[in-house]
Amino acid sequence: LTSYRDLLWYGPVQVGSDKQEFLIDFDTGSSDFFIAGTACPSCAKHATYDPSRSTSAVATGDTFELKYGDGSQALGSVYLDTVSLSGLSATGVPVGSATFENGSFTTDICDGLMGMAFPALSVYETGTPFFNALMSQHAVAEGVFAFNLAGENASLHLGSAQPPFLAPGAQVFWNDVTRPLYWEIGLQQVSVGAAVPVRNTTAIVDTGTTLVVGPPSAVAAFYASIPGSAPAPKDVADGFYTFPCSAPPQDVAFTMGGVDYLMDPGNFNLGRLEQGSPLCVGAVYQQSRLNFWILGDAFLRGFASIFD
Questions:
Q1: Catalytic site residue from 32, 81, 206, 297
Q2: What's the chain look like in SS3?
Q3: Catalytic residue at 206?
Q4: Is the domain covering 2-140 a CATH 2.40.70.10 domain?
């Protein structure tokens, strides 16, 4: 995988009998695969999928509308086609060919997004998401995939609970999925040192979200445990909080399955609010109408994550 400014991690995927190649963002927070289509006027920056070039492409007659947490949308038509990733191929995979995109999709380096959450979350009416298709077609030895988002050796490994980036003898801590739509698990608490401002909730493990997101009241309680923190000005960073750059928190932890996962302080600190400001911005922010937490890349960069 390649990091794009530590905002997202992407890799090459081939689609169709003619192996049309695209740069794809891999997202455990959604379940559908879409790419820019040739009929998309807002997709000029991207490589575009042309189903007429693929002898394995089948038009389903279905349309789709996908909406994401940052407000971005993609609309288009659904095809079934062969999809390949790192030498693993599945046939009859639903591929959304976008005829319209907005928001970050128009500016991101990626040509599309591959959802890797559960099939029940898919909005497509036909077919099975890519990794589940690999499983049903016996293209992988195990129904497991793993991410390593750390440093220059970031990677996605398919088909094994022992990915090569896992150190020999490394202990793996498993958490049960509480609701098989997202990769949602129990979040026992969020702590800052000895303070425990958040208890007994759930969290979605989401490679498609850059930061860590929580409900407004929970995030407010979290930052109340960090001396000198305050809501950032809305015109600068709406939903975010600041803290003194001279005293960044070193002991932010998320507890799951009885294990404390300490967030890397360097990943928590997004940098100064403005040039020369004594205040820095935290990587935990609030989102209205949210009743669970989202553990995004700023958290996941500190750990290997395995999805079974």
A1: 206
A2: CEEECCCEEEEEEEECCCCEEEEEEEECCCCCEEEEECCCHHHCCCCCECHHHCCCCEEEEEEEEEECCCCCEEEEEEEEEEEEECCEEEEEEEEEEEEEECHHHHCCCCCEEEECCCHHHCCCCCCCCHHHHHHHCCCCCCCCEEEECCHHHCEEEECCCCCCCCCCCCCCCCCCEEEECEEEEEEEEEEECCEEEEEEEEEEECCCCCCEEECHHHHHHHHHCCCCCEECCHHHHCCCEEEECCCCCCCEEEEECCEEEECCHHHHEEEECCCCCCEEEECEEECCCCCCEEECHHHHCCCEEEEC
A3: yes
A4: yes
